[in-house]
Design goal:
812 residues; alpha/beta; seven-stranded mixed beta sheet; 30 helices
C-alpha cells in the first residue's frame, strides 16, 4: 500500500525554468516564453493534462540553464491559456497549484522532464499558526497603507483568507523581495515557520517604509507645492542624510567662495560678501532670502574690482584720432589733450569733470565716443533725460522687492573694467519729484574728492569711481549750482557754414552713402550744392537736419538707379535740389531787404543755438495804451517797459511831442507767436523799434543787435554772444551791435566769422540809435515845431560823427 502511495506522489512532468520570478501556489501569472525547450515543454503539457512544473533559475543571465542551474523546489501549475505570437514567442497564463520538489531529471533532449514529488504544508492546526496569521494580517494592513504600490482592493481579499498556507503564499507574492528571499519562503513547508518568517520580513519592510514616509514628510514640509524639481532634489538629500552620506557644503558655494578670493575686492567688500555667503549656506536654496543673497553676491562678483583697460598715452596718436573723427571744436580737443598730458605725468588725475554744453546736433555724444577712442577706454553712455528717481543713480536698498544697484554700477559691471569712459548724456534733462533729486545723487559721483568711495544703496560698501573718466553733455546750463560747480563747462556753440560743409564732405556723405548702399562711383555732391543746402534748406546750430537732407537725396538716387538701371555717375547740382528736397525753406540773404520803419532784427539765444528775432512796433491813435504780443515772457515784457521809459525820458531830444504818448497806442509784436520767448537781451532792439516808429525813421536792414538796457539808457552785457553771431552770419547780416562789455568774448569767435561781420560795441542807447537808424532817408517826425525836429536829427548826426572819429558819446 505504501509503495502505491509513493508512486502516486512521483509525477513525471515537464519543467519550465523561470527568470526573475517565483510562482507561489494559488498565484495566477502571465508569462512570455521564447526559448525552444521551454516552448516544447508547454506544448507537451498542453497535449497531456496541462500540468507543468515551474521552477526558478538560480541566475537569470543563463540563457541555456542546466539541471544544476534550476532550484529543485518549485510549483506544480496548470496552464490556463496559451497563445502563440507572430514573432515565435508564446504568451501563457498559468495558475500555481501545490509545492513540488524535483527528485530527479529524466533524460530528454527536447525539454526538461523530471520526476517531482508534491509537498504538503505541515503544522497547520497549531495554536501558534493562528496567532501568527492574525499578526501577519495586521502587519499586511499596515504595509498596504504605507506602500502605495499595492492597491487597496487586494487588502480586502487577503484579509478574507482563512487558510494559513494560502494567506502566507498570497502575502509573499505581493512583497517586494529579492529572488533568493522569495525562493526561501517557497521552500518552507512548515506553516508556522513560514508565517514566522513572513512576520519578520514584514516588520523589516514596514520599518523601511516608515523611514521613507518620514523622509517624504520632511521633504514635503520644506518644499513649495508647485516646485516638483525641488521636491525631487530634497528627497534625494534626505535619503543621503539618513544614510549619513550628505556633504555639508555644495560645490556651487565653494566656487563662489573662490571667486570672492580672486576678485581683488576691497577688504570691506570681501567681509560683506563672506558674511552673505555664510548666511546663504544656512538657507534653503529655494527660499526668498536665499535668492536675495545670491543676487547680491552675483552683483558684487560682476563688478570689476581690479581689471583695467590699458590706456593710450600717446598724445600724437590721440590728437590724430580726434582730428580724423571730428572737424573743428578746437577748444574741446585742446582740453582733452591737456587731460591726457597731465594723466601721463601723474598717472592718476583728480581734475574737474568736463561738461560739453551746446545745442542739439553739434556732436556732443559722438565727441564722447571719440574721446573714448583717443584715450583707449571702453565707452559707456548713460542717458539722464527724464530720470526722476534718486534710486536710478544710487540703487535701491535690498529690503525692497526687486532691488537693483543704480545705473552707474550696472553700466560699469557690464564693461568689466574699472576705468571706462562714462558719458552722462543730457544732464540738464533730469527732474525732481517725490522720489528724490537725482541731480543731488550725482554730486558724489562727479566730485573728484569723494567718488573714490561712492556708496551705492544696494551694494552697501564703497566702490572706487576715481579711475572712471566722466564727461557730461547738456543743451543748456539749467543745472543745479552745486552740480555745475563740480564740472568744467566747455561750450560747443554750433558750426559755421564752412565747418558744416567740411563735416558734410568728410563725414556725413560717406556715412550716409554706406547706410544707403551707394558707391562713390555712383553719386557726387559738389561743395557748392552742400553750401546751398546749408543756406536754404537748413537753419540750425548742428548738422543733424543737414544729414537728414543728404540721406533724403541718397534714398531718391538709389530708387532711380534701381528703377531706371542707370550706371552713370549722378552729380547733384544746385538746380537738382528742388527735385530732390522740394522748394527751398529759408532765405539766406535776409539783409537784402529794404530799410523798414519800426522793424528791428534782434539776436536771441535758444536751446538749439542762436536765432534772428524780428521785432515790430506800430503806433496808432489812441489813449496811451501799450500792447505786446508774441508769447513774450515776463523778463522780455519788463524790457519793453524799460525801453519805453528810456524813449519817454529822451522825448525832447528826439523831437517827440510831449502829448504824443497820451494820444497814441503802441503795439510791439515779435513774430512766431507760437514760440515762447524770454530774456533781457532784446532791450536795445525794443528801444530802437520804438524810436523808429515814433520818429518815422527807418532802421537799417543790414543791422542786428543784442543788449540789455537800463533806465538811463546804458547797454549791459548779455550771454550767448558766440551763438548769436553765428546766427547773424547764417542770416546774411553784415553789421552787428553788441554791448561794449561783450567785446572780450570776440576772442572765441572764429576768424572767418569776424571777417564777414562788422561788429560794433556800444555802451549807450544813443550809439545804437546813431548806428541803426537811417535818418538820411528822412521820415516825418511828429513834432509840430520844425526846430525840435531838426534838433533830433542833429543829435543823431552828431552822435554818428563822434562814432566815426572813434569817440564815445556821453549819456544824455
Amino acid at each position: 500500500m505504501s509503495s502505491n502511495q509513493n508512486e502516486k506522489k512521483l509525477l513525471a512532468v515537464p519543467v519550465l525554468p523561470l527568470r526573475d520570478v517565483v510562482v507561489y501556489p494559488y498565484m495566477v501569472v502571465p508569462l512570455f516564453v521564447g526559448r525552444e525547450r521551454s516552448i516544447k515543454a508547454l506544448e507537451v503539457a498542453m497535449a497531456a493534462d496541462k500540468q507543468i512544473l515551474v521552477a526558478t533559475q538560480k541566475s537569470a543571465a543563463d540563457d541555456k540553464p542546466t539541471e544544476k542551474d534550476i532550484y529543485h523546489i518549485g510549483t506544480l501549475a496548470t496552464v490556463l491559456q496559451l497563445l502563440k505570437l507572430p514573432d515565435g514567442t508564446v504568451k501563457v497564463l498559468i495558475e500555481g497549484g501545490k509545492r513540488a520538489q524535483i527528485i530527479r531529471f529524466l533524460n530528454n533532449q527536447d525539454y526538461f522532464l523530471a520526476d517531482a514529488e508534491l509537498m504538503d504544508d505541515v503544522n497547520r492546526e497549531s495554536r501558534e499558526s493562528e496567532i501568527l496569521m492574525r499578526s501577519l494580517k495586521s502587519q499586511f494592513e499596515q504595509y498596504v497603507k504605507l506602500n502605495r504600490k499595492i492597491p487597496t482592493e487586494i487588502l480586502a481579499s487577503v484579509l478574507a483568507i482563512e487558510d494559513g498556507g494560502r494567506l502566507s503564499d498570497t502575502i509573499a507574492a505581493h512583497l517586494s523581495l529579492k529572488l533568493e528571499e522569495k525562493q526561501k519562503i517557497l521552500e518552507v513547508t512548515d506553516l508556522a515557520k513560514r508565517l514566522e518568517k513572513l512576520v519578520g520580513i514584514m516588520e523589516s519592510e514596514i520599518g523601511l517604509l516608515q523611514v521613507e514616509k518620514k523622509i517624504r514628510g520632511r521633504v514635503k514640509r520644506q518644499m513649495e507645492k508647485t516646485q516638483r524639481e525641488y521636491y525631487l532634489n530634497e528627497q534625494m538629500k534626505a535619503i543621503q542624510k539618513e544614510l549619513g552620506e550628505l556633504e555639508d557644503v555644495p560645490n556651487e558655494l565653494e566656487s563662489i567662495a573662490k571667486k570672492i578670493e580672486k576678485s581683488g575686492m576691497s577688504l570691506e567688500a570681501k567681509e560683506k560678501c563672506t558674511t552673505e555667503l555664510n548666511k546663504l549656506k544656512m538657507m534653503s536654496p529655494m527660499s526668498a532670502e536665499a535668492t536675495v543673497s545670491r543676487n547680491y553676491l552675483d552683483w558684487m562678483l560682476a563688478l570689476p574690482w581690479k581689471n583695467k583697460s590699458k590706456l593710450r598715452i600717446s598724445l600724437a596718436k590721440a590728437e590724430k584720432i580726434l582730428e580724423e573723427e571730428h572737424y573743428g571744436l578746437k577748444e574741446v580737443k585742446e582740453r582733452i589733450l591737456e587731460y591726457l598730458a597731465v594723466n601721463k605725468r601723474v598717472k592718476k588725475l583728480k581734475g574737474p569733470i568736463l561738461c560739453l554744453v551746446g545745442p542739439p546736433g553739434v556732436g556732443k555724444t559722438s565727441l564722447g565716443q571719440s574721446i573714448a577712442n583717443a584715450t583707449g577706454r571702453k565707452f559707456i553712455r548713460m542717458s539722464l533725460g527724464g530720470i526722476r528717481d534718486e534710486a536710478e543713480i544710487r540703487g535701491h536698498r535690498r529690503t525692497y522687492i526687486g532691488a537693483m544697484p543704480g545705473k552707474i554700477v550696472q553700466k560699469i559691471s557690464k564693461t568689466d573694467v574699472r576705468n571706462p569712459f562714462f558719458l552722462l548724456d543730457e544732464i540738464d534733462k533730469m527732474a525732481m519729484d517725490f522720489r528724490g533729486d537725482p541731480a543731488s545723487a550725482l554730486l558724489e559721483v562727479l566730485d573728484p574728492e569723494q567718488n573714490h568711495s561712492f556708496n551705492d544703496h544696494y551694494l552697501e560698501v564703497d566702490y572706487d569711481l576715481s579711475d572712471v573718466m566722466f564727461v557730461a553733455t547738456a543743451n543748456t546750463l539749467e543745472i543745479p549750482p552745486a552740480l555745475r560747480d563740480r564740472m568744467e563747462i566747455i561750450r560747443i556753440p554750433g558750426y559755421t557754414e564752412s565747418e558744416k560743409i567740411n563735416i558734410a564732405l568728410r563725414h556725413l556723405i560717406p556715412k550716409q552713402m554706406e547706410a544707403n548702399g551707394l558707391k562713390s562711383s555712383e553719386i557726387e555732391i559738389p561743395e557748392a550744392t552742400i553750401r546751398y543746402m546749408v543756406q536754404h534748406y537748413t537753419r540750425e546750430a548742428g548738422v543733424r537736419n543737414l544729414e537728414r537732407e543728404i540721406s533724403k537725396i541718397l534714398r531718391k538716387v538709389v530708387k532711380e538707379i534701381l528703377l531706371k538701371a542707370k550706371s552713370k555717375e549722378k552729380v547733384i547740382n544746385i538746380g537738382d535740389l528742388e527735385h530732390y528736397l522740394g522748394v527751398r525753406r529759408y532765405r539766406y540773404d535776409v539783409a537784402a531787404e529794404k530799410d523798414q520803419i519800426g522793424q528791428v532784427k534782434g539776436l536771441a539765444w535758444t536751446e538749439v543755438g542762436g536765432e534772428l528775432l524780428e521785432i515790430e512796433a506800430v503806433t496808432v491813435p489812441g489813449k496811451g495804451k501799450t500792447t505786446y504780443t508774441g508769447q513774450l515772457g515776463g523778463v522780455m515784457q519788463e524790457s519793453i517797459q524799460a525801453a519805453l521809459t528810456v524813449v519817454r525820458s529822451r522825448a525832447p531830444l528826439l523831437g517827440i511831442h510831449k502829448n504824443f504818448f497820451d494820444k497814441h497806442d503802441i503795439h510791439i509784436h515779435v513774430p512766431e507767436g507760437a514760440t515762447p520767448k524770454d530774456g533781457p537781451s532784446a532791450g536795445i532792439s525794443m528801444c530802437t523799434a520804438l524810436v523808429s516808429v515814433i520818429t518815422q525813421t527807418p532802421v537799417r536792414s543790414s543791422y542786428a543787435m543784442t543788449g540789455e538796457i537800463t533806465l538811463r539808457g546804458e547797454v549791459l552785457a548779455v550771454g550767448g554772444i558766440k551763438e548769436k553771431l553765428l546766427a547773424a552770419h547764417r542770416g546774411g547780416i553784415k553789421n552787428v551791435i553788441i554791448p561794449a562789455e561783450n567785446a572780450k568774448d570776440l576772442k572765441e569767435i572764429p576768424d572767418n566769422i569776424k571777417k564777414d561781420l562788422d561788429i560794433k560795441s556800444v555802451r549807450w542807447i544813443d550809439e545804437v540809435l546813431a548806428l541803426a537808424l537811417n535818418e538820411d532817408h528822412g521820415g516825418s517826425l511828429p513834432a509840430k515845431n520844425k526846430k525840435v525836429k531838426n534838433k533830433a536829427k542833429g543829435m543823431i548826426s552828431h552822435t554818428q560823427k563822434k562814432l566815426r572819429r572813434g569817440e564815445r558819446p556821453r549819456a544824455h
